[in-house]
Amino acid sequence: MEKQTMAGKEANMHAEMRRAFALLSGKWKLEIMWLLDQRIYRFGELRKAIPGITQHVLTAQLRELEADGLVSRTVFAEVPLRVEYKITEKARGLGPTMKALTAWWTKYGKSVPAKPSGRGRKAKHG
Q1: Which segments constitute the HTH hxlR-type domain (predicted)?
Q2: Is 88 inside a domain boundary?
Q3: Could you report the per-residue pLDDT of 79-91, keeping only the tens digit for each?
Q4: Are strands 71-76 and 41-42 parallel, antiparallel or unpaired?
Q5: Longest CA pairwise span in the chain (Å)
Q6: What is the pLDDT of residues 30-70, one digit of tens each?
Q7: Which residue of 30, 79, 87, 99 lies most exposed, with the fewest beta carbons within 10 A?
């Protein structure tokens, strides 16, 4: 009987972790979160900071992150309109995870073969 209870808890935790992974899934979400952890960005600054992302995709990813409470969007009533994005306190709770990923990459990143950037805008060199 105890195995059934444990199996139920494991299944529930699996479902919960799937929800957590879904929050950060998407080709650009982790990169957006990492950048916003450094400072507040305007939309155009984010687009320039992420080579290969399109305006459409950046808009969609930011909307999803905002809907999930991980990014806040502030609109300033100015001409031209100014919009700023920053991570929320909830997202700052991912700090230890981001630090662990940074430490892992520092140790093993050189052993990972580079991949072509794929679709989207090409990075400008020079």
Answers
A1: 15-113
A2: yes
A3: 988 999 999 999 9
A4: unpaired
A5: 66
A6: 999 999 999 999 999 999 999 999 999 999 999 999 999 99
A7: 79
3-class SS of residue 84: strand
* Residue 40 to residue 12: CA distance in whole angstroms: 36
Q: Which of 27, 32, 56, 48 is nearest to 115 (CA)?
A: 27
Residue 116 is assigned to a structural domain of this protein: no
Q: Are 28 and 55 in contact (CB under 8 A)?
A: no
Angle (nearest 5°) at CA 27 between 74 and 18: 90
The answer to whether 73 and 84 have CB atoms below 8 angstroms apart is yes
Stated pTM of the model: 0.77
As a whole number of angstroms, the distance between CA 72 and CA 68 comes to: 10
Domain limits at 30?
23-107
Number of domains composing the chain? 1
Measure CA of the first residue to CA of the last residue in the chain; give whole Å: 66
Q: Identify the CATH number of the domain in which residue 66 sits.
A: 1.10.10.10
